[in-house]
Amino acid sequence: MIKEIAVLTRKRLIYISCDPATLCRDLADLCHAGFTVETIQPVDMFPQTHHIETVVSLQK
Prior knowledge:
- The protein is of the alpha+beta class.
- The chain has one domain (2-59).
- It has 2 helices and 3 strands, in the order H-E-H-E-E.
- Strands 1-3-2 form a 3-stranded antiparallel β-sheet, with helices on one face.
């Protein structure tokens, strides 16, 4: 699916993840497809739990 996303995305992609393992896997694939990571921001949407969302801004 990363190849299709790379073809459809022109300049910028915002990726939101709730799982650090899949985030790392997908970011590696997206970087190989020509994207670079601009910013990474964790977001604690569920305080007092172990769940942390991560918002990543990528640019082609």
